[in-house]
Amino acid sequence: MAAVTYELIKRDKTTKARRGRVRAPHGVIETPVFMPVGTAATVKAMRPEEVKVLGAEIILSNTYHLYLRPGHDVVREAGGLHKFMNWDRPILTDSGGFQVFSLGDLRKITEEGVEFRSHIDGSKHMLSPEKSIEVQTALGSDIMMAFDECAPYPADRDYVKQSMERTTRWLKRCKAAQKDTERQALFGIMQGGMYKDLRKQSAEEIAELDLPGYAIGGLSVGEPKELMCEILDDCVDHLPADKPRYLMGVGTPDYLFEGVERGVDMFDCVLPTRIARHGMVMTSAGRVNIKNAKYERDFTPLDPECDCYTCRNYSRAYLRHLFKCDEILSAMLLSNHNLHFLVSLMKNIRKAIEEDRFSEYKREFYAAYGRF
Question: How do beta strands 114-117 and 107-109 pair?
Fold first, then answer.
């Protein structure tokens, strides 16, 4: 029996948006869903219990970082990532591919894999499809991502084609290396850059492997939003309708809406906790920069329409004070709010799809958010 299955519950009448349910070994995931990122086996500035309270049903952790520190052997000895970090709901682990490709001069791509130097101590390593699966197997995630090559933007067609074809070959090696298909699901990743014919070829090749789910990689890497939406619209049409679709690395409200509208089920991004650490928060009326002097005596909550722990208990003035004093609590409270905001947004999107008013809800949100 497959580790992960997808159930389609409702299709939107006017768009490709869909309401679904993913069943994984550690629980059920209602989709569309936003996955908070726990890079090093922790969602930054958040306790696992807090992440649960705000409604997150699945989180993402990073293969590259956990391989380097503390080491996948340590996590295996601890009983797997769920026990190691005290999280009993589903976990998705990325393959490490995006991280090693981001190392620039510190890595060398070959057919075997990627030879790279650690950003921590400069030590040399080789991450191959087989090694990525070995690490993710030790981590024990519910969903493993295939090792892929993420082409940059812009990139010429010949390079993107070679990269895409290598990604398909690596996916086949990942599948061959996977030992237990009942406890962990392997998702393939579509590549092809901004070339629609290469995207179609990639989708057709990876779909032949009949995997439990598929991701769209290589988007939101610096291309204009209009181009991203155009390519994404085309990508989804080529992926199996009976499997979950995952758009990697997307987490701003507008991109979430655009992805859902085109039939995407799963999203992740470091954005909510990253901008929180810099004093930026998302509210129903748009972004708020808590560093702004106008909040010094503003004793209202961050967002009057939000019922998160931060908004129920603290004012903008106090949050500004914490940030200006460089207090750890600032990152904790602002991260809590931002994650709650996105998790709640996806919950509202699911409800809107169920009620056949997704497009109406999108218009209402954009009008209130005031920046798109």
Answer: antiparallel
Which sequence positions are flagged as catalytic? 94, 268
Q: How far apart are CA 32 and CA 346, in angstroms?
A: 6
Separation CA 250–CA 281 (nearest Å) = 17
Residue range 270-315, pLDDT digits in tens: 999 999 999 999 999 999 999 999 999 999 999 999 999 999 999 9
Compute CA distances 274 → 15, 39, 318, whole Å.
Answer: 31, 12, 20
User: What span, in angstroms and rounded, lies between the C-alpha atoms of 286 and 318?
Assistant: 20
DSSP string, 246-280: EETT--SHHHHHHHHHTT--EEEESHHHHHHTTTE
DSSP label at residue 146: P
307-312, Cβ contacts within 8 angstroms, sequence gap of 24 or more: 308/54, 308/336, 308/337, 308/340, 308/341, 308/344, 309/50, 309/53, 309/54, 309/333, 309/336, 309/340, 310/334, 310/336, 310/337, 310/340, 311/337
DSSP state of 147: P
Q: Reduce the DSSP state of residue 52 to 3 states and report it.
A: helix
User: What's residue 371's pLDDT?
Assistant: 53
Task: Report which residue type is found at 298.
Answer: D
Length of the chain: 372
Residue range 50-75, pLDDT digits in tens: 999 999 999 999 999 999 999 999 99
Residues 6+ apart with CB under 8 A from 26: 82, 88, 89, 90, 91, 142
Angle at CA 179, nearest 5°, toward 86 and 61? 30
Reported as half-sphere exposure (CB side, CA atoms, 13 A), residue 158 has a value of 0
Q: What is the pTM of this model?
A: 0.97
Q: Which of 23, 34, 52 is nearest to 309 (CA)?
A: 52
Residues 6+ apart with CB under 8 A from 123: 117
d(C-alpha 96, C-alpha 302), whole Å: 36
326/320 Cα distance (integer angstroms): 10
